[in-house]
Amino acid sequence: MSRHPHHYRIAIALAISAGAWGIYWLPQRILEEGGLTGGWGTIAQMIIGVLILIPISIWRMFKGKSSGLELPLTGLLIGAGFICYALSFLLTDVVRALILFYMTPIWTTIFEILFLKKRPGLVRVVTLLLALGGLWIVFSKQTVLPLPENSGDWLALAGGAIFAGGMIRLEVAKYDGVFPLIFSFFFYGAIFNIFAGFFLADYLGPMPAADAFISMASFLFAISVFYFIPTGIVILWAPSKLGAGLCSILFLSEIIVGVISSSILTNEPFGWREIAGSSMIVVGGILAVVLAPKNEK
């Protein structure tokens, strides 16, 4: 398939949307300070998303359109991948969670070779090495080789692989618009989140009091409507237009925003490693977009 006519616009929108998730830790911290501790803020976010979107899903169902409920595999892959990522922050260091989850460019390349029979060209290899090299430079002061060491590490690594599988499915499957994708993400992601919360109850702790949920309801609604849903739409729609491999590289913009925002808001160091690594990721992303073969999505 030929390159999408709005290739550059979609790539920029995806980089911005993914970058917005680089400050995901901030609303999580606000929710935690508001009493939604132990991951219950994540569960609440998913359920709020379902409640907001379910009227549209029902309306589409009556109109004979795809509601999103008929996409359990897609919803579970992209939803479970994200939930594993979010919960991994509770069980391991933030840095390790970021490193292990953002092995997604490697997973998508492997899955494209295995399932889509694509052979990565020189451009993909170069941009992949640039992006992952930049990632390693940023985080190598903590660990030379980021191997899983605890349950949170394994959760982050698994989350990246599962999400990459979801992106491959988004690239090849046909969907009735983007709404079914975003609703399946919230609906099946919420179901997975509830089961994961049950199995990780010892780590998540008891459910907060109802007052905590009520006091944070307006904030949960606001981040769902103005943050969670809009960025999610772009992130879930882009793989079918750009390809999963290119999208996985552009997703690394989240790392850049995360490193910069945490250094500004938490007084964490921002030195030569962060500057050099972030620059390599940016260059890798730009080259991946500009040099993407014309005969690819």
Q: Can you tell me about this structure?
A:
There is one protein chain. With 297 residues, this protein is mainly α. Helices cover 75% and strands 0% of the residues. It has one domain. The chain has 16 helices and no strands. Helix 15 (253-266) runs antiparallel to helix 16 (272-290). The longest helix is centred in the first third of the chain and has 23 residues, at 40-62. The relative contact order is 0.22. The mean pLDDT is 83.
Mean pLDDT: 83
Q: How many domains make up the coordinates?
A: 1
User: How many runs of DSSP E, i.e. beta strands?
Assistant: 0
Largest sheet: none
> Which of globular, elongated, flat, extended, rod-shaped describes the shape?
globular
Contiguous uncertain segments of 5+ residues:
none
Q: Beta-strand level of the residues, as a percent range?
A: under 5%
Count of individual helical segments: 16
Structural class: mainly alpha
Key features?
single chain; 297 residues; mainly alpha; 16 helices; globular
Quick overview:
By secondary structure, the protein is mainly alpha-helical. Helix content is 75%, strand content 0%. The mean pLDDT is 83.
